[in-house]
Amino acid sequence: MIYLFQRIIQNHFQWTRPSPGRLGPHGEGEYVQENGFGHEDWNFNDNLTINKFIYGYCYYHPNKKKEKEKFNIAFATYSNKKWNVVGFYLKTEFVHNPPVSELVINQKVSDLLQLGNSLGDRWRRYSPARFHREMVVEAQWLKWKVQPSNAIRTEQPIIIPKRIFDTKNYRIVKPTEISETAFKNIFSLAQNSTFDEDYGEVTEFPEGKEIERKHKLRERNQAVVKTAKEHFKRKYGKLFCQVCGFDFYKTYGLRGIDFIEAHHVLPLSKINNKAVTKVSDIAMVCSNCHRMLHRERPWLKMADLKNILKKMK
């Protein structure tokens, strides 16, 4: 196994499609500044699979001895002089000639056209046929082959302490090899970050801290939360609070895109060691409503909190 650390450009859509506002000096690196997007913008879009695999951007070529190895990759952004881990590829393969899918190319072209003036001039001047051809050519750089279940995205960027990983090369244009220990520490950091948030004034359940820990773990099960959000967006077209209707994007613009908190609706009495969190167990709520639901024991049901809001109007 080879362990890599790969810098990834900032993205407001959690690397499922390009986000606007990065053309020119606001972009990271020459390519993004010139074109308004980067091919890693789709690195965590599991709807764009080819033969059940995600093919992610890779400006890298391992030597012959290593190219048949599997790779574990930590993706991180760099901002405010700090590294922030945002996702991982596990058990990844390097492929010389990645396949091209017409469906994937067409979806990426559609995503880029939605950028409008945030898309580079040369792309906006292309005819549809030329645009398509250029994207096919660019697909040669999608050399990371990974199963969607092994493409893990953190809910939010997590600052990496210097004691875990540090480098004087803050550009890291190409993936950089790191030790197994460093990778495991970064991965562990992402896993353990799910336990550092308190819901409100009461920090201990009457039933005990272990049940509280299990509940918080379920609300931060990244795979289930990710799937629940995607199902919700497909059904409603956007993310909003199911209690009060608050829409983070409508209020905060790009900073609020795709942000919402996950609330586990399963009663505490049903939580046990063998319980498996299902998508139907997860509700979308804003930060305020989430804290109100958890503020006192027994917890409020969402319907009860809705009734409180109606009475207060």
List the helices and strands and how they pair.
Layout: E1 2-7, H1 29-35, E2 54-56, E3 71-79, E4 82-94, H2 102-113, H3 121-125, H4 128-138, E5 144-146, E6 151-159, E7 176-177, H5 180-192, H6 209-219, H7 222-236, H8 248-252, E8 261-264, E9 282-285, H9 287-294, H10 302-312
Parallel strand pairs: 1-3
Antiparallel strand pairs: 1-7, 2-5, 3-4, 4-5, 4-6, 8-9
Helix pairs in contact: 2-4
The number of E-state strands comes to: 9
Overall residue-averaged pLDDT value = 82
The fraction of residues in strands falls at: 15-25%
What structural class do you assign from the helix and strand content? alpha+beta
Listing every helix as H and every strand as E from the N terminus to the C terminus, the arrangement reads EHEEEHHHEEEHHHHEEHH
- How far apart the termini lie comes to 59 Å
Radius of gyration: 21 Å
Low-confidence stretches: 194-220
Query: What is the helical fraction, as a range of percent?
Result: 25-40%
Largest sheet: 7 strands, mixed
Q: Number of helical runs? A: 10
Backbone shape = globular
Instruction: Give the number of domains.
Output: 2
